[in-house]
Write a structure and sequence with these properties.
Helices cover 0% and strands 41% of the residues. The chain has no helices and 22 strands. Strands 5, 6, 7, 8 and 9 form a five-stranded antiparallel β-sheet that branches. Strands 14, 15, 16, 17 and 18 form a five-stranded antiparallel β-sheet that branches.
């Protein structure tokens, strides 16, 4: 029986999902692969997540690109054996289902554990880490070969706001989605369930700025002690959709809709996201 913690999908529809381990040297970090929705799963990776001493892994997992040339990224947490390494994130190329070794990434200028519960792949070699419990220790780094270069720390609106989704382009605008699972006091309770959509061009400066749109997952109010969330972009009937999950509290689909004010002459919508709405499309507990 497989116990899954995170899931992600490549651009060509291959599904990857992982377990959660707190000590990958003795209890391997495992990633499973489904070639398509009807395929039988296979074990794609089983190992130490790139750290010989072992770490916590499986709180976050995201993908970039297709299954032939893309890769997976996952944040790592505190090791269980001394000496404790600094923990950031690791990369693993998909290579059509043939896994190599996980590459642990490191550098300077970023706080430990800045990527464990939330990371987003901005492009092929740029990662945004969303640190739990902080509005300023969210790091933008560049690199894919073991050592990254830090671009700087980024400010977000609230603490306990995070993402494990790759960024997407919606109406010709690069966007990033986050979920805030608790209040600014730091407690990991679902006091907000807030889902926010940001214009990702703001990440090149000091912060993400004011959200383009926000809404709440309209399900549950239970504890999420591990801080696990999931956000992913997709389409329904040709419209862009954001799927948001707060563990123990359900999944909500939001249609991303331009505000009426963005409608230009002749009834053509402008392609910017100066004003958008997140419209609920139902819920699943």
């Amino acid at each position: 029986m497989r116990r899954l913690s995170t899931v992600t999908v490549t651009t060509d529809g291959v599904i990857y999902a992982s377990n959660l381990t707190t000590a990958s040297q003795s209890s391997p970090f495992k990633i499973y692969r489904w070639a398509n929705e009807s395929a039988t799963p296979t074990t794609f990776y089983s190992g130490n997540a790139g750290y010989s001493l072992g770490v916590r892994a499986g709180d976050s997992l995201t993908s970039f690109g297709d299954d032939a040339t893309g890769f997976l990224a996952f944040g790592t947490g505190t090791a269980t054996s001394a000496p404790v390494p600094t923990n950031y994130y690791s990369l693993l190329y998909t290579n059509l289902g043939t896994a190599g070794s996980a590459v642990s990434m490191s550098g300077t200028g970023v706080a430990n554990l800045s990527f464990r519960t939330g990371l987003a792949l901005i492009d092929a070699d740029t990662v945004l880490g969303m640190a739990a419990g902080s509005t300023t220790n969210n790091a933008l780094v560049t690199g894919t070969t073991g050592t990254w270069t830090v671009d700087g720390l980024r400010t977000i609106q609230n603490v306990n706001e995070r993402t494990i989704s790759a960024a997407a382009t919606v109406y010709s605008t690069p966007v990033l989605a986050t979920i805030q699972i608790g209040g600014n006091g730091g407690t990991l309770l679902t006091s907000t369930n807030a889902v926010r959509l940001y214009d990702l061009t703001g990440v090149s400066s000091s912060g993400l700025g004011t959200p383009l749109a926000s809404a709440n997952i309209a399900v549950g109010s239970l504890s999420n002690g591990n801080g696990n969330v999931g956000v992913a972009f997709g389409t329904l009937s040709g419209d862009p959709v954001l799927y948001a999950m707060n563990t123990n509290n359900g999944i909500q689909a939001f249609q991303i809709v331009p505000e009426p004010s963005t409608v230009a002459v002749a009834g053509i919508c402008s392609l910017g996201l100066a004003a958008v709405m997140l419209r609920r499309r139902g819920r699943q507990a």
